[in-house]
């Protein structure tokens, strides 16, 4: 029993390391999102860090329109990044979870 517990602890530590490595890798996964008309483009990482924002000159004339564009495009990009992030981290966590009856957390 003690050996099983040590084995599980080792697996959990290994899974923790894999999760950290995945988080670091997700910093290199870039998500590009554009407005429908291409006037605004944002790029962020799968860890939801903004890398760049490109704004067409025509949007600089209307503050309210620019704000609306930023909200829409950033929200779409953040949603995509979150989906990628959660999928990747859940896969690593599921892979490293010990097989404990009744603990089907990642189905």
UniProtKB/TrEMBL annotation:
GO terms for molecular function: DNA binding. It is found in: Cytoplasm, Nucleoid. InterPro entries: YbaB-like_sf, YbaB/EbfC. Pfam families: YbaB_DNA_bd (PF02575). Its main location: cytoplasm. The keyword RNA-binding does not apply. Keywords: Coiled coil, Cytoplasm, DNA-binding. Residues 5-32 form a coiled coil. One of its GO terms (cellular component) is bacterial nucleoid. Belongs to the YbaB/EbfC family. NCBIfam families: DNA_YbaB_EbfC (TIGR00103). Homodimer. Binds to DNA and alters its conformation. May be involved in regulation of gene expression, nucleoid organization and DNA protection. This is Nucleoid-associated protein BC748_0733. It comes from Flavobacterium dankookense.
